[in-house]
């Protein structure tokens, strides 16, 4: 979601980039018609198991090279600026908050990936044009530190309305909506909840209740939030943070020893549903390799592998959801959503208004 995610995931992703980049070489493909390397451009939270990528390389004949290009917004903007001479063949990581910007600027060329008919209907977009392929989904939600609320004999918040109550004053940290994907997702969640006329009043109340704003997810979650492993080490003092519904299972999976229950929880009434897409870049130098890679991203092999690498949910029918997700980080039952067209019409003005209202 982009879906910036866990520091541990980032480390895995960087390892993959190094291995893939070093192991790739240009030359003729098996048919003698182009490059043996297919290049994936992504935000810096890409990650996949090495054996899964190796299986694709063996089956397809292409070596995968990954170029990570910052957070989602930065990566999308750079891809648009370089669309006439793209850095790669496929872009992964544009989500529904930024999709219109990519499509309006002609970032992708049409391709209907094999297996697209198995993508769950609620995640399909772009009609018959097939400029993007859904790859994963997740929920941006407020997470809470269970120990803090137990120690203070205070019920954790459940909804957006709860966050502006006096008992939660000075407890929440969120990300800048102009620089962070989860920060923007949280803003859009409030706009979906309260409508065009009321979301600004909500943020005035949230600001008056002491919300803290930082640049990005890593700082918010791993430095300011008291409930995360990183936040504990950094002596973070905010027991509420805007993160993901999949953050609690990550806290369990990467803990040593593993706890029986997650140390953090999710306020389900604060969730906004994100979907991430991939597409074949316009002017891709290896479009055939790019098509093969897009097929791979929605294959059952990749979709089964993806959750525990990028801490997102699959979008393909029948893909396996890890038990840790089911137990510690289920998807929200009724998340806020918004039509990408409405996001396109309002996003820039909303961010400008939010910046003026909250940061000044």
Description:
- The chain is built from 15 helices and 10 strands.
- The protein has helices at residues 7-23, 50-60, 72-81, 99-104, 146-151, 181-194, 199-208, 217-224, 229-233, 247-253, 287-297, 300-305, 307-310, 323-328, 340-358; strands at 37-42, 63-68, 90-95, 108-109, 133-145, 172-175, 212-214, 240-244, 264-281, 313-314.
- Strands 1, 2, 3, 4, 5, 6, 7, 8, 9 and 10 form a 10-stranded mixed beta sheet that branches.
- α6 crosses α7 (199-208) and α7 packs parallel to α15 (340-358).
- The longest helix has 19 residues, at 340-358.
- It is globular and about 65 Å long.
Provide a brief overview of the structure.
This protein has 360 residues and is an alpha/beta fold.
List the helices and strands and how they pair.
Elements: H1 7-23, E1 37-42, H2 50-60, E2 63-68, H3 72-81, E3 90-95, H4 99-104, E4 108-109, E5 133-145, H5 146-151, E6 172-175, H6 181-194, H7 199-208, E7 212-214, H8 217-224, H9 229-233, E8 240-244, H10 247-253, E9 264-281, H11 287-297, H12 300-305, H13 307-310, E10 313-314, H14 323-328, H15 340-358
Parallel strand pairs: 1-2, 1-3, 6-7, 6-8
Antiparallel strand pairs: 3-9, 4-9, 5-8, 5-9, 5-10
Helix pairs in contact: 6-7, 7-15
């Amino acid at each position: 979601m982009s879906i910036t995610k866990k520091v541990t995931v980032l480390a895995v992703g960087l390892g993959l980039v190094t291995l893939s980049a070093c192991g790739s070489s240009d030359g003729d493909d098996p048919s003698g018609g182009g490059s043996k390397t297919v290049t994936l451009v992504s935000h810096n939270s890409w990650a996949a198991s090495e054996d899964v990528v190796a299986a694709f390389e063996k089956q397809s004949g292409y070596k995968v090279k990954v170029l990570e290009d910052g957070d989602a917004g930065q990566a999308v903007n750079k891809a648009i600026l370089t669309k006439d001479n793209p850095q790669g063949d496929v872009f992964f990581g544009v989500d529904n908050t930024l999709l219109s910007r990519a499509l309006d600027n002609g970032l992708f060329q049409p391709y209907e990936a094999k297996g697209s008919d198995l993508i769950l209907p609620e995640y399909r977009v772009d009609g018959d044009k097939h400029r993007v392929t859904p790859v994963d989904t997740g929920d941006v939600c407020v997470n809470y530190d269970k120990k803090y609320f137990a120690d203070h004999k205070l019920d954790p918040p459940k909804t957006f309305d709860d966050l502006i109550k006096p008992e939660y004053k000075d407890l929440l940290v969120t990300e800048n909506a102009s620089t962070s994907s989860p920060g923007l997702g949280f803003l859009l969640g409030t706009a979906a909840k309260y409508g065009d006329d009321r979301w600004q009043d909500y943020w005035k109340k949230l600001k008056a209740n002491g919300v803290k704003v930082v640049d990005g997810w890593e700082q918010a979650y791993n430095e300011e939030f008291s409930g995360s492993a990183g936040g504990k080490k950094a002596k973070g003092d905010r027991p509420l943070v805007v993160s993901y519904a999949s953050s609690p299972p990550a806290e369990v999976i990467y803990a040593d020893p593993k706890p029986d229950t997650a140390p953090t929880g999710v306020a389900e009434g604060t969730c906004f549903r994100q979907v991430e897409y991939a597409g074949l870049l316009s002017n891709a130098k290896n479009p055939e390799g790019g098509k093969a890679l897009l097929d791979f991203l929605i294959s059952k092999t990749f979709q089964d592998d993806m959750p525990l690498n990028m801490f997102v949910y699959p979008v393909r029918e029948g893909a396996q959801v890890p038990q840790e997700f089911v137990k510690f980080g289920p998807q929200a039952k009724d998340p806020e959503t918004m039509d990408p067209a409405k996001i396109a019409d309002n996003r820039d003005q909303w961010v400008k208004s939010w910046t003026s209202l909250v940061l000044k």
